[in-house]
Every structure is written in structure tokens, then in C-alpha cells.
Write a structure and sequence with these properties.
The complex is a heterodimer of chains A (about 425) and B (about 325). Chain A folds into 2 domains: about 35-145 and about 305-365, Periplasmic binding protein-like II (D-Maltodextrin-Binding Protein, domain 2, 3-Layer(aba) Sandwich); about 150-305 and about 370-410, D-Maltodextrin-Binding Protein, domain 2, CATH 3.40.190. Chain A is about 45% helix and about 15% strand. Chain A contains 18 helices and 15 strands. Chain A has helices spanning about 1-20, 40-45, 50-60, 75-85, 100-105, 125-130, 155-160, 170-180, 200-205, 225-245, 255-260, 280-285, 320-330, 330-340, 355-360, 370-375, 380-390, 395-410; strands spanning about 35-40, 65-70, 95, 135, 135-140, 140-145, 150-155, 190, 215, 220, 265-270, 285-290, 305, 305-310, 365. The longest helix of chain A has 19 residues, at about 1-20. Chain A is globular and about 60 Å long. The relative contact order of chain B is 0.11. Chain B has about 325 residues and is mainly α. Chain B folds into 2 domains: about 5-60; about 90-320, MetI-like fold. The chains are: A alpha/beta (about 425), B mainly alpha (about 325). The interface between A and B is large, with 54 and 49 residues.
Chain lengths: ~425, ~325
């Protein structure tokens, strides 16, 4: 009897272990004559020509060196990066979101770079340059930044009798009502916002003077439960209910707002300015953009200033080549091409007066904490928004719990 | 030869000795054969399972974060990782949710599998072939593709499920959000998993049904036994070993299932409110880059799965010895 149990236990352990063993995908080892670059899919859909031009320039300077561009998605690229840091065979250049840099720099994941090697490095955008600096060294080269603007259908606005673009959030909500009245088609969103798009929602929070978290004498304190933040979240809830028919539980990439727009179901949408890329041929001519208005007249709603850096992992065996490629990809001509696509270039001397650049004048950024990326990946903000919009919790309750949660994550050692 | 010469004696002793030696080697070889036969399996298991398990165990007693990952060595912290996991409320909630989830999945898979297998026996040839090919096609579909198809079908904007339910006048399902609550999310995941697991279970059970002697069933019928009675008293006992194997395999699969829930629910909707064990492990270990703690969680999972299926495996062995 006893022996049988032991045998059974042993057998099950073996069975379970066999199944628990994770499969690891083999990564291709870069040969000496090639470098591997991980870029986000934004480049693939938005500016593949800029990438191609940089590759061409790089190959002219380094004949015979291949550039292997591998496109990654924001959702899982850090897990892949972790795996290659442990096992090798990873990229020589990696694109990192500016909110993701700190954790990796603190862990020693990137090689220090010589700033003077890159074009316009004396004039790099302050916020972006800061996200690539750690302990006095430069680990990340600013790639581009982006603010969030409203992309809208000029024809629909006109048909609804909206002759002046909204100057306040309240006006915008009123316009949404008029758009809705003119477009009774089921599922039509006057202002498409995905329910858990925290980049938009936090704009309301900052517009009302609230915030996410702040550091008080070395300890992070959650700010979402403050009076101002609650006012902002309440305004977001009301605005969403008035204007968006998107799912209350989905994020801003499932589906991509521009996909719904291209189906003719959107009057306007809030997002990166490059959204114009994919609004569909039918609507390209009738598409315009404006800066999202805040709740006070004459003030734009603060937009998330997102951005990317390019870094060289310590595991790269071609660090010099990698830095050279970054130099070519962030050259003045390359940055100007990125600007032409609606992005904010990486240096102040290149700034123009595009809508994106104007929107960036009033912007907000996430807390610069080592563990911030854990807050993002843990979906704390998204979960809060879902609870608020579906009415599962009151604004107060959801904000309080998220605020406490964020503080505890940021204060981890 | 009348007298034995010394050479002959010597030769004889050598012969004896060599014969004895040969007998010894034969004996040894005969004894060694089973070990030699089992050796490849033992070596493979040791390499494939033992070695990673050893490292998993070692990792679970270390502080191993992103910094240690890059340095390629961690610092020993004893059982701190296990203590931290066992004191985590999220762990216990996730464990309970996963057990209920596993029970629902395994139960549904086996009951539906059994019903379809019994149906297969009764079907006419062409229909049976049609159904079986359908099942094989399901089996052949890669999980990731299946997830995508389910995702599209239940899509908020253009999902065919919402469309059909509305067209059938079962209510207004236009823009119905199937991913609105953990219960609804996990129900969809259950549907997907059961759908994907059925072919294997059905085909295995159908093969098992071929072993049930028809004359026994006919005799039962003649004696006036109802179909239900005949199933429990004749069919099921014969199928029991197969059902036990299927049940234990299903428990192991469903308890640790990752791909379907992670992809169908979607990363941006994964929160402690809908964690399953494997997702908890992934979030804690990988997303937070706390690999030591992740290793501790996976060892706990291993122990739990072993505990859950030990009953079944014991029964399996009992059946084996009885036969």
C-alpha cells in the first residue's frame, strides 16, 4: 500500500514535471557580419522607409554588415529581452519605451554610450534624455517622442453643424451629442476612446490638478485618491459615457482606434498623431487633427509625452556597430523624416510647429520610479478604469484601491 | 590417456575456471540486462527532467532579479521566496480559483467526451466519419490560431456570436462585452479549452468502447436492464482505466494551462482578479523579473498537481496490479 503510494507520487511528479518544463524558443545567434535590431511595430506600420534609409546609410559605411530588423510588440518585448539577457543571442540594439528604461539601467542591462557620437545630442529633448541617463552615464539615445492629439472627421463635424473646434472639454462633449444625433448608426462613437486607455484618462486627472504618485522624502505616495484626481476621473467617466461606444474593458490596441475609424464608425479619436497613417483611403482627405481641449477655456488637456530610446544591451557582441547604427537612425535627416510622419523629433533645435509639437507643450509623464514598469504591466490603472466605467466600484473606491496599490509597488526595494 | 599429465590438469582447471568465469559473466549479464534496458530512459529522464528540476530548486532559494540575471548568479536567501508566496493573499485566491477552474474543465471535458464517444458508436458509418474528421480538424488546429478565432467570434464590435444571438432574437447582444468580468472571461476560456480537449478524449474513449463485449450488453438488454444501468455496470467499469488516465492527464494540463487564458483574456486585462496559477507564476516571475520567487511558485504548483493527481495515479497502478 505504502509502496504503491510512493510509486504513484513519483510517477505523478515525473508526469507533472514533464509538463511543467517550459519550452524555450531558440534565438538565432547573430553572426559577426550582422547586427540585430529590435524595433517596435510602430516603425513597421508608420515609418518603414525611415528604417530602410538608415539601414542603407549604415551599410554604405559598413559594407557587408547585415542589419536584421526584428519587430516587437510592446506587450511582451521585455520578457523576450529578459530571456536573451540570461541566455544570450539577443539584439544589439533595442528600442525601449521611456517608462521602461530605469529598471533596466539600474540592473546594468545596457552598455554606456558616448553621447558626443550622436547628432544633436547637445539639444536632446529634456524629458527623453533624462529617461536614458542613469548614474551620470548615457544608456539610451532619444529616438522620438509623441504627444496625443485628436484625429477627427472634418466632414462629419461639418454635417453636424460644428463650425468651431471645441475649446473646452464641455464643448467637446456637447459636440459629441450633436455628432451622435447626426450619426444614429449603431456603434458610432463621436469620440472613440478605449475604456481602459489610461493615457487618455490620466490626461483628465492631470487637467484637474491631480496626479498618479509623488515622492515625499524617499517614499512614494499615491495621488489618485486625492480630491483633484477624483474630479479628473469623474470627468473622464462622464466624458466616456457621453462620447465613446468602445468597450469599457478593452485597451487602446484591441482594436486599434484607427481600425474602427476606417470602418466609418468614429467621429473623432484621441491618440498619437501618427494615427492619420491608418484611417483608410476613403477618409484620408476628410481627416484633420486638433489639440484635445482641457476643462478650462484656452488650456489644452495635458497629453502623455511618450517616447522611445534606443539602447545597446550589455550582451551585444557588436557594441560599436550597434552604436553606429543608432547614430544613423537618429541622424538629423532621419529625425526630420520621423517628424514628417507626425512624430516629435529628439532634439529641440529640430522642433517645428506641428500639432503634435504644440500638444506637447502641456504634457504629463509617469512617475520616474524604478518599479513604475511593474505598475504598467500589472494593469493597475487599467483595472481601476474598468471598475469605474462598468460601475463595479465607485470612482472613490476604485481610485483609493489603485492609489494604495501603486504606492506599495513603487515602494518595493 | 591413462594418466593425467600436469598440462592436462592445468588445461582442465583453466577450462573450469574459464567456464566458471563465463558462467559468472553470463549471470552478471543476465542480471544487468534489465538495468541496461532501463538505463536510456533513466538517463533521458534525468537529463530532461532532473537537471532543470535541480536548477529550479536552486533558483527558488535565491534572490534572482534582473540584476542577478545579467550577472548570471544569485544570492541565496533560504526559504524566503516560499514564505513570501505562502503569505501572499493573491496566491491563495488564485489557487482556489484554479482548482475550481480545473474541476469545471476536467468535468466538462470528460462528460462531454463520454457522451460524444457513446454517440459515435451509435452513428451510421458516413456520419461517424464526418464527426471524427471534424474532431481531428479541431485537434489539428494550433492553439494560438484557435484563440484568435474565438477572439474574433466574441469580438465586441463585429463578433459573429453577438450577431447570431441578436438575429435569433435572444436579446440585444449588440456590443455585448464578453470580457467584462472574470467569470465571463474564464467561462470563455473554459469553452475554448474543452473544445480543444474533446477530440483526444472522444477518440480515446471511442477506442475504449470497442473493448466492451457486445454480447454482455445484449444480455443485459435481454434481462431488461435500462441503458443507464448497462452503462454503469458494464461499459463504465471496462472504460475505467482509460477514464482515469484521461482524468489525470486533463488535471495536469488544465491546472497549468497558460496559452489560452493569457491570449484570450489578453495581457491588458490580466489582473489578480482573474489570475490562474500559471499566469500568477508568469506575472510574478517574469513581468516583475523576480525569477527566484517565480521558481518557488512553480515548485509549489508541481507539488499541488502531484497531490491532486496522486489519487488517480494510485488507482491506475492498483488496476494495473490487479490485472
Amino acid at each position: 500500500m505504502k509502496r504503491r503510494t510512493i510509486v504513484a507520487l513519483g510517477l505523478t511528479v515525473v508526469l507533472a514535471a514533464a509538463l511543467a518544463a517550459a519550452t524555450s524558443s531558440a534565438t538565432k545567434k547573430a553572426t559577426a557580419g550582422s547586427i540585430t535590431v529590435w524595433l517596435q511595430t510602430d516603425a513597421q506600420s508608420g515609418w518603414p522607409d525611415v528604417v530602410a534609409a538608415a539601414n542603407q546609410k549604415f551599410q554604405a559605411d559598413h559594407p557587408g554588415t547585415n542589419v536584421n530588423i526584428q519587430y516587437q510588440s510592446w506587450g511582451d518585448h521585455l520578457q523576450k529581452l529578459d530571456a536573451t539577457l540570461a541566455g544570450g543571442g539577443g539584439p544589439d540594439v533595442v528600442e525601449m519605451g521611456n517608462t521602461e528604461m530605469t529598471k533596466y539601467m539600474a540592473a546594468g542591462a545596457f552598455a554606456a554610450l558616448d553621447k558626443s557620437q550622436f547628432d544633436n545630442s547637445a539639444n536632446w529633448l529634456g524629458g527623453l534624455a533624462a529617461s536614458g541617463r542613469f548614474g551620470g552615464k548615457v544608456y539610451g539615445v532619444p529616438y522620438y517622442a509623441g504627444s496625443r492629439v485628436v484625429t477627427y472627421r472634418k466632414d462629419l463635424f461639418k454635417a453636424a453643424g460644428i463650425n468651431k473646434l471645441p475649446a473646452t472639454t464641455a464643448q467637446y462633449a456637447a459636440d459629441a451629442k450633436r455628432l451622435l444625433a447626426k450619426n444614429p448608426k449603431k456603434g458610432f462613437s463621436p469620440v472613440y476612446i478605449a475604456g481602459t486607455d489610461w493615457y487618455v484618462a490620466m490626461g483628465f486627472v492631470f487637467d484637474y490638478g491631480g496626479g498618479i504618485a509623488t515622492q515625499v522624502s524617499g517614499t512614494w505616495k499615491g495621488l489618485l485618491s486625492s480630491r483633484q484626481s477624483i474630479a479628473g476621473l469623474t470627468a473622464y467617466k462622464n466624458f466616456f459615457n457621453a462620447a465613446s461606444r468602445a468597450s469599457k474593458t478593452t485597451d487602446e490596441t484591441h482594436p486599434n482606434p484607427y481600425t474602427v475609424y476606417a470602418q466609418g464608425l468614429v467621429g473623432s479619436m484621441v491618440g498619437p498623431s501618427w494615427f492619420t497613417c491608418c484611417v483608410g483611403k476613403k477618409y484620408t482627405a476628410s481627416t484633420g487633427q486638433f489639440v484635445m481641449p482641457g476643462h478650462l477655456k484656452g488650456q489644452a488637456m495635458p497629453g502623455f509625452l511618450g517616447g522611445s530610446d534606443l539602447a545597446v544591451p550589455v550582451t551585444s557582441s557588436n557594441k560599436a556597430l550597434a552604436a553606429d547604427w543608432i547614430k544613423d537612425f537618429t541622424s538629423t535627416s532621419s529625425e526630420k523624416a520621423l517628424q514628417a510622419k507626425g512624430n516629435i523629433p529628439n532634439a529641440t533645435n529640430l522642433l517645428g510647429n506641428s500639432i503634435n509639437e504644440r500638444a506637447a507643450q502641456r504634457s504629463w509623464f509617469v512617475p520616474t520610479a524604478k518599479h513604475w514598469v511593474d505598475v504598467e504591466n500589472g494593469n493597475i490603472l487599467r483595472n481601476m478604469l474598468q471598475q469605474i466605467l462598468t460601475g463595479k466600484l465607485s470612482v472613490q473606491q476604485a481610485a483609493q484601491s489603485a492609489s494604495d496599490n501603486i504606492a506599495s509597488v513603487l515602494n518595493q526595494s | 590417456m591413462p594418466s593425467t599429465s600436469p598440462t592436462a590438469v592445468a588445461a582442465e582447471t583453466t577450462l573450469h575456471r574459464s567456464r566458471r568465469r563465463r558462467r559468472f559473466w553470463e549471470h552478471a549479464a543476465r542480471k544487468a540486462i534489465p538495468y541496461a534496458l532501463i538505463a536510456p530512459v533513466v538517463i533521458v529522464v534525468a537529463l530532461v527532467v532532473g537537471y532543470p528540476l535541480y536548477w529550479l530548486g536552486k533558483l527558488s532559494t535565491q534572490k534572482y532579479g534582473l540584476f542577478e540575471l545579467i550577472q548570471h548568479h544569485g544570492t541565496s536567501v533560504g526559504l524566503a521566496n516560499f514564505r513570501s508566496v505562502l503569505h501572499d493573499q493573491v496566491f491563495w485566491h488564485t489557487l482556489l480559483r484554479t482548482i475550481v477552474f480545473t474541476a469545471a474543465n476536467v468535468g466538462l471535458t470528460l462528460v462531454l467526451g463520454m457522451l460524444i464517444a457513446l454517440l459515435l458508436v451509435r452513428l451510421s458509418g458516413p456520419v461517424r466519419i464526418l464527426l471524427t474528421s471534424g474532431l481531428v480538424l479541431v485537434w489539428a488546429m494550433p492553439v494560438v490560431v484557435a484563440v484568435q478565432v474565438f477572439y474574433w467570434m466574441t469580438n465586441f464590435e463585429n463578433g459573429v456570436v453577438n450577431y447570431v444571438l441578436t438575429q435569433l432574437h435572444l436579446g440585444d447582444y449588440y456590443q455585448h462585452d464578453w470580457y467584462g468580468s472574470p467569470l465571463s472571461q474564464l467561462t470563455l476560456v473554459t469553452l475554448l479549452i474543452v473544445w480543444g480537449a474533446l477530440p483526444f478524449v472522444v477518440i480515446t474513449l471511442y477506442a475504449g468502447l470497442a473493448q466492451v463485449p457486445q454480447d454482455l450488453l445484449e444480455a443485459a438488454d435481454v434481462d431488461g436492464a435500462r441503458p443507464w444501468r448497462a452503462f454503469w455496470d458494464i461499459t463504465f467499469p471496462i472504460l475505467r482505466p482509460i477514464v482515469l488516465i484521461l482524468a489525470s492527464l486533463s488535471i495536469i494540463w488544465d491546472f497549468g494551462v497558460f496559452t489560452q487564458p493569457y491570449l484570450l483574456i489578453g495581457q491588458s486585462k490580466i489582473t489578480p482578479g482573474n489570475y490562474l496559477m500559471s499566469i500568477y507564476l508568469f506575472e510574478e516571475g517574469y513581468f516583475k523579473s523576480d525569477f527566484g520567487r517565480g521558481a518557488a511558485i512553480s515548485i509549489l504548483m508541481l507539488v499541488i498537481v502531484a497531490a491532486l493527481s496522486v489519487v488517480y495515479v494510485r488507482k491506475m497502478i492498483k488496476i494495473g496490479t490487479a490485472q
